[in-house]
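Question thread 4412

I'm putting together a teaching handout and wanted feedback from people who do this every day. The idea is simple: show students a protein as raw sequence, then show them the structure tokens that encode its fold, then repeat with a second protein so they can compare. Below is the first pair exactly as I plan to print it.
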Amino acid sequence: MLMELVNVSKVYQTDGPPATILADVNFAVDAGQFVCVVGQSGCGKSTILRLINGLLPVTTGKVLFKDKPLSGINLQCAMVFQNFALLPWLTVQQNVMLALEARGMELEAAKKRAAFYIDKVALDGFENAYPRELSGGMKQRVGLARAMAVEPELLLMDEPFSALDPLTSINLREELLDIWADPNLAVSTVVMVTHIIEEAVEMADRVVLVAGRPGRIVADIEIAMPRPRQKHSEQFTRYVDSIFSLMAEC
């Protein structure tokens, strides 16, 4: 077991009554899996990612990473955000190097590592470009390269394709699956939040359905289909329809 949430709840204190975002969530991920978390807006999907990464503390319960309780930021994780989260005054290379330098990597080693992952996301030649000079898809490639450059054991992705046009989204999904499946790359385990059921069925080994509010896990569905997934097949459609029906009932 790589990561596990055990009886986790998350409550925010407000000026009014406390707001319970998650209640009694139990969720585990094995090394090498690609897991998608789906659910309606506001059900707590993104909060689950932030608890796994240690960006937020749990209210009750615990987060385990390699069977050890998590305390503070999990440096074995990296996050790809929906809104790219690039620093506009830094170049592509500098944005990718940022986390490496923060972790104390020497400059030349950081440059070499950044160049490797910039090439892996097909941005070779754009190292000196600034975010304002990039398309949305290119910005998300930078975010992916930055996350992969720290070579995390667990890659977390928060609706990474939702701000992109459909064609760019399709291309990036295919490239991400290629990266995940590449035995020569360190990233082998992915947890991705999405609200698009078809996207989850296309990409995931397992689809975890969260319903709220407060958020709780109501289904954990193994996608037993060979890759690449045939999106127009009867089996694919059955998975999509089943998950949609479960979501509509919540």
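The second pair follows. I'd like the answer to focus on this one:
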Amino acid sequence: MQIKITSADSCVILGLDGAQLNSLKKSGYEYLWQGDSKYWAGQAPVCFPIVGVLPDGRATAFGRECVMKRHGVARINKFEVFEQYKNSVTFIQKSSDSTKSAYPFDYELKIKYTVVGDTVTTEYNVTNIGDCQMPFVIGGHPAFNCPIDDDEEFEDYKIIFDKPIEKACLRPDHQSGLVDVDKKYDVMHGSDTLCLNHSLFEENDALIFENCVSKSVTMLGKKGKGIRVEFQDMNNLLIWSAVGGAPFVALEPWTGISSCSDEDNLLEHKRGMTILSPNETASFKYKITMI
């Protein structure tokens, strides 16, 4: 099942399967990656209650055993439509036997998408409906066509941060997905602009800008088309493309990052964890603007 929301010249299609973006169109141009198993079949999965991976897929959370695949349980379990209007839709997922077999906590996750003009706002609301403390991180994983225009190339695009980036980034291992914090990659050299090239992603995985001072990035092509992602509520930004010359770039705002080499195996100790008490709710937003 797919749901369409619209505003002015913008049309957004969302899928009930995974409560994720399926299409972002403005003036006839498709901005969202449409998925291709040759490179990556995904589009914009929701990452919850982990982002990235756990060592061997396992961790303990307040004494409870968690066994989760990459990016957690939300994207692979059922959502329902909670509320729908012309320019917005809210999906809801509640913990179930399926989610609790992997992540043994009771939660309610609402994801609201709103389009106003050329901008789509994604809002996550996470509520602990259980009787004990609940740790989690959450993040978006939207991938965008690069190039957007058929007359352009991948290398015609650059990513511009709203502030210069002085700090070297981290990168997960291609195979394990784990992060060695002793390995730093200074790809920005104090600049605010990253020129895209497939070689950035061939030998290493995503660029992780941890505790990023910038809260807005713009992917822009030579013809002026592009995407801006604003992530005031998120501490981290990942930039990723698949190996083999994939024609997309993912710009991923996350509250945490994948498991790191200096962490123990307690979920509540991992970077960026939000810990909710019973009946407590936490909210996070980020915005995507089609240019």
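Top answer:
Good format. For the second protein you could add a caption like this: The chain has a mean pLDDT of 97. The chain is about 5% helix and 40% strand.
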